[in-house]
Amino acid sequence: GPEAVSVIGLGAMGSALAAALLDRGHPTTVWNRTAHKARPLVERGARAAATPGDAIAASPLVIACVLDHAALHAAVDPYAGTMAGTALVDLTSGSPGQARETAAWAAGHGIDHLDGAIMTTPPGVGRPDMMFLYSGPRAVFDAHRPALAALGDPRYLSADPATASLYDSALLGLMWSALTGWLHGTALVGADAVAATEFTPVAVDWLTAVAGFMTTYAPQIDAGRYPGDDATVDVQIAAIGHLIHAAEERGIDNALPGVLKSAMERARDAGHGGDSHASVIEVLKGAK
Ligand code: NDP
């Protein structure tokens, strides 16, 4: 039958993880610092552990999702000596350095550690299209893949434990840039009385084209050559001028397009005016 799993941390996210495991029939043990948060899960069939140590002892796979790195260590450090051979999948958000630190701590205690990043919010947990990113030993991922698949779409990235956190930060940066670009555009058309619900379906379709540009540009970046045969930096500097002008006329904040224009101008000044937009990465990479 489905693998027994323990979940440490029953905040909004940990509770969603435990619920998804219960939905897929995994015998699930839960622990939370504030005990009453286990109650709704116990009503759905979970077993409540009195201590993190009891939760760790109950299952070969322990999934932790607490506030931060310090909270993880506060919960599990006292039981490290009992955890040899246990798989610890840490879905707590943290920095790449913290993931490496936890991996070294785990290795020192014979714990099979994977670091993970959850690329959704609690309502998305359990959906097969929501990505969960993992890094650490491949064998640990493979051994527990069926249980991890109860949470979402498990994606193994690399043996370096830092990689999942690094992708998490990079992908959130993409999300904030895209969302803020969409909000800026929505404010711009909104100034001419276009509703957000009218503009957004067009914006969503546009993202498909933008994803295509990313796919075209990725090999250019790996090759360090940016043929401007689709649209040049020079052409796009002119185009962003129209955005800035239209926003200015409507009293819309122009800080975001200002940052984007400045990056393109620095790429142009570095000799990339005739190259594709991917050449802006040479500016972002900074001084060598
Ligand atoms: P919540 O604030 O809802 O839950 C925080 C959890 O951490 C609670 O279980 C809390 O216990 C526990 N905790 C805090 N400090 C300690 C401590 N010192 N010792 C033991 N337990 C502690 O946050 P979320 O559930 O939303 O987030 C949890 C993690 O998941 C975070 O790292 C977050 O970045 C990550 N995440 C969240 C997403 C989301 O959409 N919510 C998306 C992707 C990642 P108590 O109940 O006792 O306070």
Explain this structure.
With 288 residues, this protein is of the alpha/beta class. The chain folds into 2 domains: 5-158, Rossmann fold (3-Layer(aba) Sandwich), CATH 3.40.50.720; 191-284, N-(1-d-carboxylethyl)-l-norvaline Dehydrogenase, domain 2, CATH 1.10.1040.10. 53% of the residues lie in helices and 12% in strands. An 8-stranded mixed beta sheet has the order 3-2-1-4-5-6-7-8, sandwiched between helices. α2 links the parallel β2 and β3 (47-48). The longest helix is centred in the middle third of the chain and has 28 residues, at 163-190. The protein is elongated, with a radius of gyration of 23 Å. It starts with a strand and ends with a helix. The relative contact order is 0.08. The mean pLDDT is 97. It binds NADPH dihydro-nicotinamide-adenine-dinucleotide phosphate (NDP). The site of NADPH dihydro-nicotinamide-adenine-dinucleotide phosphate has 22 residues, from α1 and α4.
Helix and strand topology:
Blueprint: E1 5-8, H1 12-23, E2 28-31, H2 39-43, E3 47-48, H3 52-58, E4 61-64, H4 69-76, E5 87-90, H5 96-108, E6 112-118, E7 131-135, H6 138-148, E8 153-158, H7 163-190, H8 196-223, H9 233-249, H10 255-272, H11 280-284
Parallel strand pairs: 1-2, 1-4, 2-3, 4-5, 5-6, 7-8
Antiparallel strand pairs: 6-7
Helix pairs in contact: 7-8, 9-10
The chain binds NADPH dihydro-nicotinamide-adenine-dinucleotide phosphate.
NADPH dihydro-nicotinamide-adenine-dinucleotide phosphate binds next to α1 and α4.
Family: Belongs to the HIBADH-related family.
EC number: 1.1.-.-
Keywords: Oxidoreductase
